[in-house]
Amino acid sequence: MLCSISALQAKPLAVRPGRRQAACSASAARRDGAAAASQSGLDRSTPQQQPQSPKRRVEAAALALAGGVTLSNGGSLQAQPDMDIDTAAFQDYRDNPPARKTKIVCTIGPTSCTREGLFQLADAGMSVVRLNMSHGDHASHKAVVDLVREYNSLGRGNLAVMLDTKGPEVRSGDLAAPLQLSAGDKVTFTIVEGADGTDNRIGVNYDQFVDDASVGDMLLVDGGIMSLQVERITDIALVPARCRPARCACRCRRRHLNIRGKSANLPAITDRDWADIRFGIEVGVDFYALSFVRDAAVIYELKDGTSAIGVLAKIESADSVEHLEEILDAVDGAMVARGDLGAELPVEEVPYWQSKIVQGCRRRGKPCIVATNMLESMIQNPTPTRAEVSDIAIAVREGADAVMLSGETAYGRFPFKSLDTMTTVARRTELSMLKYHGTRRLADQGLAEMFAYHAVTMANTLKTSLVVFSRKGNMPALLSHYRPDYPIYCFTENELVQRRMALYHSVTAIYMRFSEQQEVTFDRAIGMLKERGHAKGGQLVAIVQSGRQPIWRTASTHAIQVRAVPQDPAEDLSSDDEGGPVAKFPIQQQQPES
Ligand SMILES: Nc1ncnc2c1ncn2[C@@H]1O[C@H](COP(=O)(O)OP(=O)(O)O)[C@@H](O)[C@H]1O
Ligand SMILES: C=C(OP(=O)(O)O)C(=O)O
Prior knowledge:
Blueprint: E1 3-7, E2 16-17, H1 19-40, H2 54-65, H3 87-95, E3 103-107, H4 115-123, E4 128-132, H5 138-153, E5 160-164, E6 179-182, E7 186-190, E8 201-203, H6 209-212, E9 218-221, E10 226-230, E11 238-243, E12 247-250, E13 257-259, H7 271-283, E14 287-290, H8 296-305, E15 310-315, H9 318-322, H10 324-330, E16 333-337, H11 338-344, H12 350-364, E17 368-371, H13 386-398, E18 402-405, H14 407-410, H15 415-431, H16 447-462, E19 465-469, H17 474-481, E20 488-492, H18 495-500, E21 507-511, H19 518-531, E22 540-546, E23 558-564
Parallel strand pairs: 3-4, 3-18, 4-5, 5-14, 7-8, 14-15, 15-16, 16-17, 17-18, 19-20, 19-22, 20-21
Antiparallel strand pairs: 1-2, 1-23, 6-12, 7-11, 9-10, 9-13, 10-11, 22-23
Helix pairs in contact: 1-2, 1-3, 2-16, 4-5, 8-10, 10-12, 13-15
The structure holds adenosine-5'-diphosphate and phosphoenolpyruvate (PEP).
Phosphoenolpyruvate binds at residues 132, 134, 164, 256, 291, 314, 316, 337-340, 371-372, 406.
């Protein structure tokens, strides 16, 4: 049984569905369909829910492979409205849920930096560890990276590390004691040394603060938790302001300060950031999240010296949204940093920008993280608010690659419950929206792009996972871009690629040494999928191999195949009237195209 589409660099597509392949696909399709129908007990009388005959599904797959079809759900060749809900598939998924597709970034801080804490978060579904360089020191961050390496080397998972630069941010200084303020109280922000909250005088780390502010401006503390109106600016660099809330505990210790609508006039990457960036190279982080990016120039500056490390732009300033398209063209991915974004821009504009940024990344096939305040109330409480749950669901529905926890896992009282809540909400949301849709329509016509597109269409039609072999990570990223219904298993012998995939939607990356022989490698990979419970005997998988150079000398540069996972003797070899029992793997050597 082998369905294979392959092409040498400039060759046209050839569809070669053999009889065995049709038989295998048909039997698997029948099993799928029957299982879904019996589990759901649903009335399938509407056209969209009509079970498709196995033959039609295979024909549909072949048609889809022949091109000209929009990315769609299992079997239907019509374009589906976005976020469609397929009730039968929902039931199917609920009974046999695949891996979560949306990744989770956790900020590591005092409550999660121990071996036990970090391992527990990792076991519970953390994909990427975020080091916030605004806090902690190099020694404490290095200790976290060491724990991540230990976790990965134990074979327990595949965590990536993201170093989030402090950036040219404006922050208040330390306080000797918490401040209690009442309405009408005046607060003075000053660059004069020694201000520690005494007499309501608070330090600021930015010398030009006074030049940027004007009387009447709103000064936001911690993204707007407190807002203060600037009443007076003195020539000794003081900014007195009136406190808005009736009575509040002033959360002013090392907090972000933003003047609404104005970006600070600081260098894009400060000396302190460069030191942190060098530290990132030394310890081998996988991503930089660059704070307060204003335009693309700073991205090129950073990428110049650090090519192996993915650069994500944090979109969090009025300047960055103005230059959004050029920034997204330059970066490897982005973060919707809603804390500062909602302080520099009117907060009601944040959802609009969130959608723009997520869609902008998805169009370019670049990963996007939605961050900040996702489960803020769980810093103190064991349960989320309904609004927080909806907020996560929206990010998942928009197709963000990842959602992020900040204070919830860094210093909150319920770091594990927060992660558990986020995981559950993400998965539930994914179950209710089987169909994501690719956003690019073969715009640049590259062969790899076309293969990714068709492989995803085929896998969706046949309801199979995708298996990809990758040396540089390009093909799994492309497959992820098209948001397949089922997981992408990326096999690689490059640990950097493996870790980087931790951020990409739907991708589970598995380290595996490739054999000189393609068939041995495929065999080994399918064996690993079975061992880890990702695939069962008799199931189909779509194998994709594509790149500028073939991995195996005798193989095509580009190939898509559908194969059946071999049955163990103990497994039920259910017979199939079109082709007999599913054959043992490997069934047939793939021949290179001449
Ligand atoms: N490495 C760290 N060491 C100490 N505290 C940390 C660390 N990382 C994060 N935190 C705490 O967690 C809070 C929330 O994290 P985050 O949202 O990343 O911070 P911020 O908004 O201050 O940039 C921080 O304000 C800080 O109190
Ligand atoms: C993620 C953000 O950045 P930081 O935690 O550095 O404030 C944000 O502003 O939302």
